[in-house]
Each structure stands twice: as C-alpha cells, then as structure tokens.
Amino acid sequence: MGRLKIATLLVIAALAAGGCADSQEKDILQDGTYTAQMDEYSHGWKEYVTIIVKNGEVVSTEYNAENASGFIKSWDNAYMNNMKAATGTYPNEYTRYYAAQLTGQKETPDIDLLSGATNSGGNFQKLSKAVVEQAIKGDSSIVAVRQ
Question: SS3 for 15?
Fold first, then answer.
C-alpha cells in the first residue's frame, strides 16, 4: 500500500510540474515580426510599433507615425524644427529613445518618458504592451490600439 501512495504522489507531482512549465512557457515571445498601431489618427498621424523577435527576444524595434498618405513623421523636417523649438525634442529623437527601451527585452519594460514627448510616450507604452502580447501569442496580424 505504501508503494501505491508513493507512485500516486509522484504522478501528481509530475502533472503539477508539467502544468507549471506550461504556464511559464506561454509568456515566451515567439519569433517573428509583430505590429501594433493606434486605431485612429491624432493630429494627422497614426503611431505604430513594429518589433522583430528572435530567440524569444526583441532584436529590433521601429516606433514612428505615418499620415494618411504613408509619409513618416520623423522624416518631416518642418515638423521637426517646429517641435524642437517648442518642446526641446522631435520625432526622430524620441522615437529612437522609446524604441531603444523595448529592444533587447523579453517582456514589456517600464518606459521612461521623455520630457516634451510624454503623449507619444504614453502611446508607446500602450503599443508596446499590445505588440508584446501579439508576440507571446505568435499572432502576426496587426493589432489596433485605442487612443
């Protein structure tokens, strides 16, 4: 009778350990390319984050915004000059700053906000969370994020 109890306990322990491993594995980023974008344009721009995951880690992050014709915000020199004078930063600077915080990660990091680009920083936080969730699921469809 003692051996039967021990065998039963070993089977239960093995099943429990297997269940724990499954719950830990579900949070692993799946290799691939993933994109999240805001669901609407704001001031003529729709922000997006695209990541590439390799070996469970974000190896590349692109954060930017585009207008309805597909023009990229960080390429707009007039916008850059106006924003830099008003806030001390500009899209080509803050998009790289935020993207660097996600690159190299295996989960959504806490994002340090940059003075002068806090609204975009808040959007980046939302987009980063959504794109990492897509990578965990291995779902490469573009996910829309509410403003």
Answer: helix
Q: Is the dihedral of CA 39, 43, 45, 51 positive or negative?
A: negative
Phi first, then psi: give them for residue 45, nearest 5 degrees.
Answer: -125, 145
Question: Which of 41, 90, 37, 91 lies closest to 67, judged by CA?
Answer: 41
List the structure tokens of 59: 């190896």
Q: What is the pTM of this model?
A: 0.80
pLDDT of 27:
81
Q: Which residue has the tokens 């994020």?
A: 145
| Number of Cβ within a 10 Å radius of residue 124 | 25
The secondary structure of the chain in percent helix, strand, coil, rounded to multiples of 5, reads 50, 20, 30
Q: Are 45 and 127 in contact (CB under 8 A)?
A: no
pLDDT at 34: 98
Buried b (16+ CB within 10 A) or exposed e, 22-48: eeeeeebbeeeebbbbbeeeeeebbbb
Q: Binning pLDDT at 50, 70 and 90, where does residue 1 land?
A: low
145 phi/psi in degrees, rounded to 5: -115, 135
